[in-house]
Amino acid sequence: MDSIDQLDESMKVDVRKLEVFNKISKEGSRQVADSLNQMTGLDAEIEVAKINLLHMDDVKTHLGDEKKVGIFVELTDPPNGYVLFVLDPADSKQLAQSMIPGDSDSESGGFSDMERSAIQEIGNIMTSGYIDGWANVLDTTIGMGTPTFTYGPTHAIIEKMGGWPDEDIVFVLDSEILAPSTDVDLTVYTFPQIHDLVELVKQIDIDTDVGVDTVADESLSNN
After folding, report:
1. Distance of CA 63 to CAs 59, 69, 93, 173, Å?
2. CB distance 169 to 157 below 8 Å
3. pTM (two decimals)
4. Range of the domain at 82
5. How many structural domains does the chain have?
6. What is the β-pairing status of strands 82-87 and 148-153?
7. Interval 23-81: pLDDT, tens
8. Which of 54, 74, 70, 79 minimizes the C-alpha distance to 3?
9. Taking the CB of residue 137, how many other CB atoms lie within 10 A of it?
10. What is residue 163's three-state secondary structure?
11. How far apart are CA 106 and CA 39, in angstroms?
12. Which of 31, 52, 188, 192 minimizes the number of CB atoms within 10 Å of its CB?
């Protein structure tokens, strides 16, 4: 039994509503691209390579333990939990340079104060846009804390986030930020409280909310 089947079985979600999870991630990605464009002028697009529901053990393997840049934020309203953005350090520098050309700490392999500040600000915009995308599809409002910038081995990033959440299933979105000046790989790990998320999904009217989203999604994909 895969993760989606297990989610359906354990939480009794109408299987037709599972498509909502794809729409949530796609809408979140679109919001991230729009927010980045407004802030950096990159003319960026988000290409969603893969959206998966993974077991926590599989997520630990997927995340690995290399040095990464992590930006995490706590959700203060249902579905609660955390959202973690993970980027390669070199890609993070590229994003920072789009805002502060010429300021770099490349010789040390770390980040200058200005680069950290730029990445933090980009993280604020990306997390806000991504969570707004979730809220739009779920027809709710989702509050969040202050996004936190971290840099180091991924296990240390998770520790700063408060450790591995006590949930079995994680949403993992592998995507790429495409822009004329740079391509940046971005992975988003969403650790919701599954019960809270399912309660929100159960409130969605399949014949209206999901149908409208489907039409919107198809029209966007055809542009």
Report:
1. 6, 12, 20, 12
2. no
3. 0.80
4. 3-217
5. 1
6. unpaired
7. 777 788 888 888 778 777 777 788 876 778 888 889 989 998 999 999 999 999 999 99
8. 54
9. 23
10. coil
11. 23
12. 52
